[in-house]
Specification:
Layout: H1 6-44, E1 62-64, E2 67-69, E3 78-86, E4 95-98, E5 107-110, E6 123-131, E7 138-147
């Protein structure tokens, strides 16, 4: 009778167990990744985009004749009219809106949506969100611009 080595038998069984364990662990990792991605979408409250275009662009987005930027009237609730000039006041804002009434009526501008350089020297109506100002009479995040002249 041939003698069977017990170490060889154990090794074959351990090898089968190791393959099954690897498959289970791999499946658990894949499941965790899928659940993590789904949880991220649920927490952000956003749905996956079905179009290839982005909502923010490098330049203005035309929303009507001479109107550029976002149509979001819930975020951008304030408006003012004046002429756009480069540079803010004392480092606050990238641009300023010079309005009738003198320096106390000047608004400092930034924009999370538009490139304001394209409107320098033009008379415009800006629709914006007011932000906390430290040095400017009025500090605005511009969401939409209507070119008047």
């Amino acid at each position: 009778m041939e003698k069977i080595d017990p170490l060889i038998t154990v090794t074959v069984e351990e090898e089968k167990m190791t393959k099954q364990t690897k498959l289970i662990i791999g499946g658990v990792f894949v499941l965790m990744i899928v659940l993590g991605v789904l949880t991220g979408y649920m927490i952000s409250g956003k749905k996956p985009s079905t179009s290839s275009s982005s909502t923010a662009s490098a330049g203005p987005t035309a929303t009507g004749k001479n109107v550029f930027g976002s149509a979001d009237s819930k975020t951008f609730t304030d408006s003012a009219t004046g002429t756009v000039e480069k540079d803010g006041i004392s480092g606050e804002g990238t641009h300023k809106l010079v309005r009738d009434g003198g320096p106390s009526q000047t608004a400092c501008l930034v924009s999370s949506v538009l490139d304001l350089d394209q409107f320098v020297g033009k008379k415009v109506k800006v629709t914006s969100k007011t932000m906390d100002a430290k040095k400017c009479p009025w500090f605005m995040d511009v969401g939409r611009i209507e070119v008047l002249e």
